[in-house]
Amino acid sequence: MEELQNVLDKPGITYDITKDANNVLQCVSFCSEQQKLLASKYGGVVLLDGTYRINKLRMPLYTLAVVDADGHGQPVAHALLAREDSEHIGLFLNKAKEWFANIAESIFIVDKDHAEIRAISQVFPDAAIQSPLSLPCLQGIHRRNEATEGFQ
After folding, report:
1. Four-way CATH pick for 2-147: 3.30.420, 3.20.20, 3.10.50, 3.40.50
2. Residues 6+ apart with CB under 8 A from 62
3. Is the pTM for the entire model greater than 0.90?
């Protein structure tokens, strides 16, 4: 945990540590100033996914990314969670909502993880949620990017 705290304390890093009533760690959310700029510029299409406890802390790592004008995913925030459920994912998404107000009505692309879908629906009720393999999802990304900077 000391290594993580050293990263979080670096200049330009915004973070939040959430603990429960028993002082047990639930969520560590963080992003950089550069990531905040990316989110404000390309917040129309948002990707969310997690890994399964492959780090030293043995906590799932979730990443929120935006799709840039070239169609590439750009990470804008990360979180280590105590559990992979909608409550804990919601802790991360609420922090992202605070940091990136422009993503409230975005198109969210997730795999078929029900906890992720439930958390997005609760935190961002006006957002569209799509599976990455669906044609409407791909069309939505294209329309959203054309409306901003577009695929050329």
Report:
1. 3.30.420
2. 48, 49, 50, 51, 78, 79, 80, 81, 89, 92
3. no
